[in-house]
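Minutes, structural biology subgroup

Action item carried over from last meeting: produce the structure token record for Peptidoglycan binding domain-containing protein (Sporolituus thermophilus DSM 23256). EB confirmed the sequence was re-checked against the source entry. Recorded below for completeness.
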Amino acid sequence: MGIFGSFLAIITLLLLLTSPVAGSPVEPLPPILKQGMAGEEVAHLQSKLLELGFYTDAVDGKFGTQTRLAVMHFQQATGIEPDGVVGTLTWQALREYHEQPELSRSGGNERKGQQIAAFATRYLGTPYAWSGQTPGGFDCSGFIVYVLEHFGITVPRTADEQFAVGQWVSRTELKPGDLVFFSTYAPGPSHVGIYLGGDLFIHASSAAGEVTVTSMKKEYYVARYLGARRLLK
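Output recorded by EB:
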């Protein structure tokens, strides 16, 4: 056969071994999903996140802010860069997490923090109301009182009092559910929000006139950041 013939035979054999068998199903790559998209795949994603406790809103097939935040919480819980984009790694983690229900039902503090953050996003768009602490209207500390009460956690009514409870957390160690404090209209801790992950926090903002999500990197808040407290031991 000769050297060339032997080499050709080996290459042919390798091609046969590595080629898919005719008629065998080839699993398609999962779609990349991100904010602004819509459709059945988004609804499937929302259903998965709802089942695992990371998503609390309607399964409507629309990839909006709350879906993105839920994805980020899930990514943080599974060690994936929390960018809010659902790629191959996130789809794989969703499948594996689903196959390990003991993880999804964990009662750990990190999991509880994610639940607090997810619950808080239900109230996006709720009007700001001075001294308010109901879904009819919140001020910043009233929003904290209301959200934490849902989880059986009692905190003082005002931001400066809330700043005195819990455990101090450094900026680099923030986790979803931590309280973040700022000095805004008055010296000392005069504004508070709930950290969501990905350098985002949710708060009742008098400037926005509603409960909104803001970046921790926004210049206004960077200059006024005081610190964070963790209430989950």
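Discussion: The chain is about 40% helix and 15% strand.
Next step: EB to file the record with the rest of the batch.
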